[in-house]
Design brief:
alpha/beta, TIM Barrel, 11 helices, binds phosphoenolpyruvate, gluconeogenesis, isomerase
Length: 250
């Protein structure tokens, strides 16, 4: 019922040429009628080249963030209308690197999410706990708070146009993946919490897992009942490993 989704977060990597080549290799390597929805999120500056390369392919182009405003004196930001002009259909919001390195808090993340929704871009909302929070038994409280901050602003119905990514911070870029059981426990919790606010929406919203997913561990994670695909960092930078992960989601 929920179409699996696998999205590559290329972070601050590559060149215009390598980004275009990677996009071409991914699009070219997908099986015909692939049952998995696929997206890639290059750096902002490579979006035009990647979008051009992916024209007439099923691979969606996403951004790694989106401004909380439409236009104006907001140096360094890129707005949802700008992203749309270049063919973006997805935007990551609330990635832990934005939250922890650049100090983006729940209110800003919610405003960014809201702008994506307003302009018809699917926000990929990242939530997840640090190792310290997990060890203190705060995992559920943290993801509940991060999610509710967004729902308070955008409303539960916004999830019809959005995707959630559970990304435990301790698993991102560390090679330390959550076990399928650890991930499923949190995904099931998120879906249960959402069900209390809207059963149909909770059943339909896709919840991706992110954190050191690779070609070897993807299938066991994606086999879990509430894991609907993945947000992939490091392993999305090589077409063959990314395509193996896509295959594991089918
Ligand atoms: C991410 O940055 O969203 C991510 C999941 O990274 P990695 O796959 O490298 O852990």
């Amino acid at each position: 019922m929920r179409q699996p989704l696998v999205v590559g977060n290329w972070k601050m990597n590559g060149t215009r040429t390598s980004a275009r080549d990677l996009a071409a290799a991914i699009a070219g390597g997908l099986p015909a009628n692939c049952p998995v929805a696929v997206g890639v999120c290059p750096s902002f500056v490579f979006i035009p080249a990647v979008a051009e390369q992916l024209q007439d392919t099923p691979v969606q182009v996403g951004a790694q963030n989106v401004a909380d405003q439409d236009a104006g004196a907001f140096t360094g930001e890129v707005s949802a209308p700008m992203l749309k002009e270049f063919g973006c259909t997805l935007a990551i919001v609330g990635h832990s690197e934005r939250r922890l390195i650049y100090g983006e808090g729940d209110a800003l993340v919610a405003a960014r999410y809201q702008k994506a929704i307003e302009h018809g871009i699917c926000p990929l909302l990242c939530i997840g706990e640090t190792l310290e929070q997990r060890e203190a038994g705060e995992t559920f409280a943290v993801v509940d708070r991060q999610l509710q901050a967004v729902l308070d602003v955008a409303g539960i119905d916004s999830l019809k146009q959005a995707v959630i990514a559970y990304e435990p911070v301790w698993a991102i870029g560390t090679g330390r993946t959550a076990t399928p059981q650890q991930a499923q426990e949190v995904h099931a919790h998120i879906r249960r919490q959402l069900a209390a606010q809207g059963e149909e929406i909770a059943a339909q919203v896709r919840i991706l897992y992110g954190g050191s997913v690779n070609a070897d561990n993807a299938a066991s994670l994606f086999a879990m009942a509430d894991i609907d695909g993945g947000l992939i960092g490091g392993a999305s930078l090589k077409a063959d490993s990314f395509l193996s992960i896509v295959k594991a989601a089918a």
